[in-house]
UniProtKB/TrEMBL annotation:
Provenance organism: Acetobacter peroxydans
UniProt gene name: fdoG
GO biological process: anaerobic respiration
Cofactor(s) demanded: Mo-bis(molybdopterin guanine dinucleotide); [4Fe-4S] cluster
Protein name listed in UniProt: Formate dehydrogenase-O major subunit
Entry keyword annotation includes Protein biosynthesis: no
Alphabetic keyword roster: 4Fe-4S, Iron, Iron-sulfur, Metal-binding, Molybdenum, Oxidoreductase, Periplasm, Selenocysteine, Signal
Top-level taxon in the UniProt lineage: Bacteria
UniProt xrefs under NCBIfam families: formate-DH-alph
InterPro entries: Asp_de-COase-like_dom_sf, Formate-DH-alph_fdnG, MoPterin_dinucl-bd_dom, Mopterin_OxRdtase, Mopterin_OxRdtase_4Fe-4S_dom, MopterinOxRdtase_cofactor_BS, TAT_signal
Residue ranges annotated for the 4Fe-4S Mo/W bis-MGD-type domain, each copy included: 45-108
Family named by the database record: Belongs to the prokaryotic molybdopterin-containing oxidoreductase family.
Gene Ontology MF, one: formate dehydrogenase (cytochrome-c-553) activity
Pfam families recorded: Molybdop_Fe4S4, Molybdopterin, Molydop_binding
Amino acid sequence: MTSLGRRAFLVNTGTCVAGASAVALGFVPPRVQAQETRQYKLLRARETRNNCTYCSVGCGILMYSLGDGAKNAKPSIFHIEGDPDHPVSRGSLCPKGAGLVDFIHSESRLQYPSYRAPGSQEWTRISWEEATDRIARLLKDDRDKNFIQTNEKGERVNRWISTGMLASSAASNETGLLDFKFARAMGIVALDCQARLCHGPTVAALGSSLGRGAMTNSWVDIKNANVVLIMGGNPAEAHPVGFKWVVEAKIRNAAHVMVVDPRFNRSAAVADFYAPIRAGSDAAFLLGVVNYLLSHDKIQHEYVAAYTNAALIVRDDFQFHDGLFTGYDAKTRSYDMSSWEYERDGQGYAKKDPTLQNPRCVLNLLREHASRYTPELVSQITGTPEKDFLHVCETLASTSVPDRTATILFALGWTHHTNGSQIIRTAAIIQMLLGNIGMPGGGMNALRGHSNIQGFTDLGLLSTRLPGYMNLPKDSQQTLDTYLQGVTPKADEQGEVNYWHNTPKFFVSLMKTLWGDHATAANSWGYDWLPKWDRSYDMLAYFELMGQGKVNGYIAQGFNPLAAMPDKNQMRAALSKLKFLITIDPLDTETANFWQNEGVYNDVNPKEIQTEVFRLPSTCFAEENGSIVNSARWVQWHFAGARPPGEAWGDGRILGTIFTKLRALYAKEGGACPEPVLNMQWNYRDPEEPLAEEVAREANGYALADIQDASGAVVLRKGELLPDFSVMKDDGTTSSYCWIFAGSWTQAGNQMARRDNTDTGLGNTPGWAWAWPANRRLLYNRASLDPQGRPWDPRRQIIEWNGQRWAGADVADYPPTSPPGSGVGPFIMQSEGVARLFSRKALVDGPFPEHYEPTESPIAGAALGKTVRHNPVARMFPDDVARMGGPEQFPYVATTYSVTELFRHWTKHSRLNAIMQPEQFVEIGDRLAERLGIAAGDRVRVSSKRGYIEAKAVVTKRLKRLNVLGQQLDQVGIPCHWGFKGAARKGFLANTLTPAMGDANSQTPEFKAFLVNVEKI
Ligand code: SF4
């Protein structure tokens, strides 16, 4: 049968439109009609379930691949669409997710390993064998030469600081676990991940305030709010599908949505109310809200009294004066925190005054502390008109009643500041005062950025961390006992859960995972083999050392630090001092090519750069099995839908192969402290290529002997997977890499792969995937009921007491059999059992938040009524201080941000996204543009003390001129998406402009507020 095209068909039948209509009406023989119908494109395609690799909404996707399993058919993904069953995304994808196919097939996908020799101007293709042999040799030689077994005091520290490693933020948890074992076995302390650059301050702030440093509620739960405050984030652009639950709150719940942001952004376009603010002044705004709530008596009294530390009495010697808390030492730029504590009774418990009359109780101290932030002062500092500020105060205050809630959505707009942790703490205090923590439709919703940065934070991939939010031991903690005593808190109130008292069980179970049978009680479970830290080796600190020539080797896995770190020119100079750099990435990144001359975009002389570089191609999300954690702590399992392109390997295979070779070298040659390298448990079916499934089970943990309960009954047989963390032991009979992941893969199977989207109430879907801890979806949910167990709002009841235990739509975040009225506090991770308005010694810059100016600020200190202008304990390296500018030369406040169509520096490699946003631009307010003679589309140069970028000007009314302390102030918006690699037009890395100063607690850089100048080119 010859084929009949549409045109030939029309000619042959002698018809045109009328004939076509006849076809539609069914008057044409079936054989001809069948030939005209386009074949259903998904016919015979294989469907695979996965998740979007970009943001932390974690949208479900269905990937369709050709290749139906026939022997020589190689699957290739040709179509991706949203998973309609996914409870959050319900079939939606944003422009980033819609371009995923182009990411998978990007021309920038690396196909084979390549090598750049010192001084060379080109890449050379090499084999995996050559690459991994050479890397193992380089690592071993550097480690053997520079390993530090004991410090100058003679303490055993077992660390290696001349080589460091950056872990990804989109790789699976299973890769993360292998990263940790790989790095810590060798003694690497400079292990860090993207969390350092995004939500580090969230973890510090929410952990110290509430007990856990994570988003409290979930994406779908946003629909239960009466009020939504979006500040320090822009979810309509950065988390578009998650944002639909804000719209749902408006539609279903008549929620009032408010946006406070330097730009009238796309979230503001959908909101009911928008207020402008000067970038970097958020803490002043929020402290003003605290003052408003306390001075207008708009707090949820019963909640505050029962569920916060409002009534606890603070030591007499704790004071605050002129921007400083008690104990400041200007020489060391640090605090002696001893006075930041409660008064104690004879038993060591915190004293309290339930009547709240004592002037030294926390609530009264907070009232006094915040009283300086009057609406007038707030307006002067922030530039927000006073009436707009008061509108936000009044609207939030409307939720101080038990049956209304506000949710707060924030992201990097709050974290990227030298006082980011304190900004977030202030917001948490507002929610505590309003009784909005633990409530459906309430909470502190930290919108994490990358698809698995929550997971990598959970897994302890930060320089001084261990999995499950434990700390890596420091030099002074020389014995296991000293360490455990130092990190295991005692209850501050009688009868409180103080769940961290179980730390020894979590820690010993981790050690059994790391060292296996080598970990015994006699050797303190291999405690000595863990590297100890003497100082932070966070990314900023480590690049400082690199710039000083003190670092030899660096591994960047799924990370593009040249584009992501602040002050790109300084970072490039630091990378140029390395002896070797290893990049592991699916894409060809700027970091791998930092030595290439790209003209104005990267002006270097390759001949002068003596770094040898290995560029190793890895798989992407679509080519691997594994799990990732979304912002709401849902651990979701995904499946490979295709094989890797060319010779690319999975991350596990790359790490497994290098580590196996390294171990073989140590076994054969010996070397510096070989024990941790050789004793690290790496007992996978194929050590060179661990399977995601076996690693995931290892993360959950096993019984290593029969486990008995208190009555002596065996509850778990040797070899069985742990059902949850409650069965963990500190006697070496259980193993678990990450205690909060216990329950994710049990004897009942892989809980992360579950797909029951039944709504058990208020949008809760506990049968979909699995959430840490213990599959709880709403953290602190016991606080949604009063102490007697009655819901504050019957329409928002999510758990209930059934007479014997807690039940309901969610898993209670509470001891399951502690009845109503037992007096046990609902914040079970806190040693007080309650949320902290006063955070004691948990943060280095103060137990109450305070507004400090960004490091580069247009404001003079005296205008704030205090002499201390900047965060007094923010770390300042002299090199960075020398690269700070002032308002005389750089008069405008700049802030970086993301746009809907692009995700950081990844989507510029995806053709669809590059088409949508092909060219770099900056946003300039119309009044500033007029003054500088800039029209829309003109090219402009934006410069800071650290360098310049050039881009097209978008002249807009979205950035208003503000009146700040009587001064007319303009702000400039800098999207950070372009670079010199990828499918979009070449552009400047926006981080050329940004300063390398970080949040005092987490060292997360101040990307959101710095000074620039703007000129028309
Ligand atoms: S980028 Fe985020 S919102 Fe967009 S599709 Fe991916 S996960 Fe969903």
